[in-house]
Amino acid sequence: MSTKKKIKKLSATNKELSEEVTALRSQLTRTETKLARTDERATRWKTETAAARTAAARSDARAEKLQKKLDRAAATLEPVKGVAPADAAATDRPAAEPTTPDGVTRPDPTWTVAQLRAEARARGLTGLSGKPKAQILAALTTDG
């Protein structure tokens, strides 16, 4: 082979290798950039995790403190005695509540809207908050 052909062949090979090296360097730069972003994200998540653990520990301590306070308060309460007729005014219902034979309270038109709504809540009825007194009363008397 002549020297000129060898040089041309080497030049073509060198050019191809040079292009390949450039492409690999570009890919390496992109990969290093992605790695740096991932490392930053991991560091941020570690910081957030530490802050969340601290907040959770504080919440746990606060919950324990409140539970102890609740336990102390419950221990100091006296047992509740039966409601006497004189105490009926303390409830939201009239003193002479009509009841059915099975003991369920039966509202009547003398009740206020607030009393009727409270009774509906106690029975688990929903959708009556915006209804007029007559509709609430009807729902309570048909509910049984």
Structural class label: mainly alpha
Task: Tell me roughly what share of residues is in helical segments.
Answer: 55-70%
Mean of all residue-level pLDDT scores: 81
Low-confidence sequence ranges = 84-90
Strand percentage: under 5%
- Largest β sheet strand count, sense and barrel closure: none
Question: Whole-number radius of gyration?
Answer: 40 Å
Q: How many DSSP H or I helices?
A: 3
Report, as a whole number of angstroms, the end-to-end distance. 111 Å
Please provide the count of β strands. 0
Give helix and strand order, one letter per element, not per position: HHH
Q: Choose one word for the global shape.
A: elongated
Describe this structure in words.
With 144 residues, the chain is mostly helical. It contains three helices and no strands. The chain has helices at residues 3-76, 113-123, 133-143. The longest helix is centred in the N-terminal third of the chain and has 74 residues, at 3-76.
Give the helices and strands, then pairings.
Elements: H1 3-76, H2 113-123, H3 133-143
What distinguishing features does this structure have?
144 residues
Report a brief summary of the structure:
The chain is mainly alpha-helical and 144 residues long. 67% of the residues lie in helices and 0% in strands.
